[in-house]
Amino acid sequence: MKAVGFTRYLPIDDPQSLIDLDLPKPAPQGRDILVAVRAVAVNPVDTKVRSPKDKVEDAPRVIGYDASGVVEAVGPDVTLFRSGDEVYYAGDITRPGTNQEFHLVDERIVGRKPSSLSFAEAAALPLTTITAYESLFHRLRIDRDGADAGRSVLIIGGAGGVGSIGIQLAKRAGLTVIATASRPETVAWVRELGADHVVSHREPLAPQVRALGIEHVDHVAIFNDMRHWLDAVELIRPQGSIVTIDDTHLPMPMEQMKTKAASLHWELMFTRAMFATPDMIEQHRLLTFVAGEIDAGRLRTTLAETLSPIDASTLREAHRRIETGTARGKIVVDGFPG
């Protein structure tokens, strides 16, 4: 089967950073389903995993953490899907990735594809949707269905993949959304997605938010990096809550968090699959829920650009664009060649 991977961790402008491969077709066991992959999306995690480091793989490594496709075969313990079902999912970072024609994935982290979307439109959603959903509803414990309507959330990184679906989920839950964006096209994008207010992450955030007449926010979701930690701490209300998806590579003073008795939560959408937690199936449930909301017209895909076909050259270009840090929404690569 066709696949794209690498053995050496190289800069993306090196032709060996991602190479075309021919690998054996896997067979499902246990609760795995075998998916015939139709489209994949590229996320910042793809570029981080592939980024240059002093390491060489004995066998080619295949990455990729978003896919949509059709179930080809199922393992003996599978109960949620059958051959022919259309699915979308983000996979498991501890296993081979989605950049291959046929991919094994545990059924408990897979959802039924929105029937109203193309495979490319659906592939844009899983990783960022799981991340945003878990951040808002599982980590910050905001009520998904509106019991916390009227509360406020500052979404830092509003135009990115996670922010783009996070804005929609927060608005669906009835929250007032302040999103960050810095360029005219990204400001327009987050407003189109439902943001009530937009502030620039190129300037200090606290003065801009307060200029809106908002002294504190109930929640902060840091969906890019920790450069704005001090602003987040200043803006969070006493006993409010912050969630972040970034690493702690920058200083994070905690004194004011203690004074405010504010809470900090970490989100990594791979955690459930990595540790085979008893609630792994929550990802199946949330993806299926979101598919229903999309088909009902209450949420929309965050696809911004589609490239084709799924091969090493095209995936290198997608990685290059993600590495600029200026992507709006999601970049999807559609269809294996021939």
UniProtKB/TrEMBL annotation:
It comes from the Bacteria. The keyword Metal-binding applies. SUPFAM superfamilies: GroES-like, NAD(P)-binding Rossmann-fold domains. Residues 13-333 form the Enoyl reductase (ER) domain. The keyword Nucleotide-binding does not apply. CDD domains: AL_MDR. Keywords: Metal-binding, NADP, Oxidoreductase, Zinc. One of its GO terms (molecular function) is oxidoreductase activity. Belongs to the zinc-containing alcohol dehydrogenase family. Quinone oxidoreductase subfamily. This is Zinc-type alcohol dehydrogenase-like protein. The lineage of its organism: Bacteria, Pseudomonadati, Pseudomonadota, Alphaproteobacteria, Hyphomicrobiales.
